[in-house]
Amino acid sequence: MSKNAREQAVLGAVRERREKVNAAIDEDLPAQRPERLYEAARYLLEAGGKRLRPAVLLLTAEALADVEPGSTDYREFPDLTGGDVDVMSAAVSIEVIQSFTLIHDDIMDDDDLRRGVPAVHREYDTETAILAGDTLYSKAFEIMLQTGAPPERGMGAMQTLAETCTHICEGQALDVDFETRTDVLPDEYMEMVELKTAVLYAAAASIPAVLLGADDDTVEALYDYGVKAGQAFQIHDDVLDLTVPSEQLGKQRGSDLVEGKKTVISLHAAEHGVDVEDLLDADDPDEVTDADVEAAVEQLREVGSIEYARECADELVAEAKAHLDVLPDNEAHHRLEQVADYLVERGY
Amino acid sequence: MSKNAREQAVLGAVRERREKVNAAIDEDLPAQRPERLYEAARYLLEAGGKRLRPAVLLLTAEALADVEPGSTDYREFPDLTGGDVDVMSAAVSIEVIQSFTLIHDDIMDDDDLRRGVPAVHREYDTETAILAGDTLYSKAFEIMLQTGAPPERGMGAMQTLAETCTHICEGQALDVDFETRTDVLPDEYMEMVELKTAVLYAAAASIPAVLLGADDDTVEALYDYGVKAGQAFQIHDDVLDLTVPSEQLGKQRGSDLVEGKKTVISLHAAEHGVDVEDLLDADDPDEVTDADVEAAVEQLREVGSIEYARECADELVAEAKAHLDVLPDNEAHHRLEQVADYLVERGY
């Protein structure tokens, strides 16, 4: 299948689920009192987002249950032992966690834009943004508790969710720590990416297996699929930050370089003699022009750093797809392979 | 029993448990990588704290299981159906949540001091403090997952924990909202206090009942004990903020008045003609002297507002103690009654 046909297939699958996910978000996280708090908490969720992680979760459930994609009620989804489970709640929970992390990350990184709209701490204020994130945090746990799965599986899902949140915090701490370090090793970077970004994909892919009653090997393989796909996603994100126009990114292009973020690209470039810290000499992403970014990217391209990052991402995608062998051979399984490809082929 | 003897009995019971709780915190939340993150997360827990909520949780377990207080291993605590449960993990979880809320509250209120040491966002920085709070948040859920209780009880405890966290956020949002409102009603204030402060006592008192397998009526009564005792605690805290020297409080005396916080005291005073907003005319708690605070308190005393708050707190304590009737008549039960009394008698 061509890259373009694959992208269309993935985007179609994501889109088909997005409307249902959005309706479920409104059901599970309604606007309520105190109004301003829940408005702020729902603000980014309402601003858009592809709902990629919920789509991965729902597709994994469909692959495991061996049902035709899109044919089955996600709120009463057949498990592997003759019962049914609300996998949609799990999908909403993962998206709510994602939204909480974006709100707090934007405060910490002092980013102004997200999804093309002001970050929550800009639209409201820092206090409200902290509290909105904290509210989403516990709401995600409440929502994950309502899957109706047998309690031992419910506890398993809660365990994965809690550990995932801890890992995201640890990853974010490492990311901040790396900004002021010049001796970051590639392995350290990959660990940081696993913790900060990939574990949420791993949770999205493995939690449905836990909830539906799959065996431990299946749960573990799907977790590993998520880790590898998530690492590939982050590396591709780092590429996009440098190569996609700001309007399309929904935030200032090149902001990672200005903020001194370590990426596969910057680590490779530094190893190959590029003075990465002086590539974009500004204190704030708003101070750099597109021409500045273009000149910096040209230098990175010349030493092969952009190409190197693409190769890393491709390798991770191949590893991710291999882990899907535990799934039955069906359409949803095939779609999950394409999702992994899409994560490193998407234009933004 | 005299007030003094009662206080000694409570403080003795709290102290006896504190050392075990502190050791359990070190076990369940060890210093680990990334070092700076976990240092910041553990900073307030290490700075002190009475461990009142863990003590309430452990005493409730002891009262329910009808064992001699202090005689039983909290990690392998006898439940009501012949099994055993690690109630200490639940106690640690509650204290970790308390610590997370203090860290984020101090950022939101821009308070400099806590427990006599710099607030986390002062000792470290705001970014680290946000992240340290977020880490404690998920760690509390991880720790609550390790009680070893039967899964359906474990899920019940997780449900209470998640709802409690959501309520705390809602209460904090109302508290902030009230600062700029002049039409706050007493019932709204009491609801805010229930959400912001009391639910964590309610969780501490009811979660052991869930974990040990008590019936729903018992769980509910203990929850209500916690709510009433917690509301009384907060009202007494509001009195202490005005009447106790800064060194003893561990923060600037009178800070609530400067920040425009609504309390039972300020609501009563406003109703009785006091211009509460001008009582302490400063933008920052550091700008007021002890003499300023003393003059303000004198005005509040004259219209009976301080006395009124004390009466409210006493009534709530009486209601709290009545809910303990579901417990067997034993020493731990008696100690929980004394704890409620202590919450409104303590000097700081």
TrEMBL record, chains A, B:
Check the record and name the PROSITE patterns matching this protein. POLYPRENYL_SYNTHASE_1
* Required cofactor(s): Mg(2+)
Q: Which CDD domains does the entry link to?
A: Trans_IPPS_HT (cd00685)
Q: What class of enzyme is it?
A: transferase
User: Recorded GO terms, molecular function?
Assistant: (2E,6E)-farnesyl diphosphate synthase activity; geranylgeranyl diphosphate synthase activity; metal ion binding
Q: Which residues cross the membrane?
A: none
* Keywords annotated in UniProt: Magnesium, Metal-binding, Transferase
Q: Give its E.C. classification number.
A: 2.5.1.10, 2.5.1.29
Q: Which GO terms describe its biological process?
A: isoprenoid biosynthetic process
Asked whether the UniProt record includes Ubl conjugation among its keywords, one would answer no
The record ties this protein, via PANTHER family, to: GERANYLGERANYL PYROPHOSPHATE SYNTHASE, SHORT CHAIN ISOPRENYL DIPHOSPHATE SYNTHASE
Q: Which family does it belong to?
A: Belongs to the FPP/GGPP synthase family.
The molecule here is called Bifunctional short chain isoprenyl diphosphate synthase
Source species of the chain: Halobacterium hubeiense
Q: Give the source lineage, highest ranks first.
A: Archaea, Methanobacteriati, Methanobacteriota, Stenosarchaea group, Halobacteria
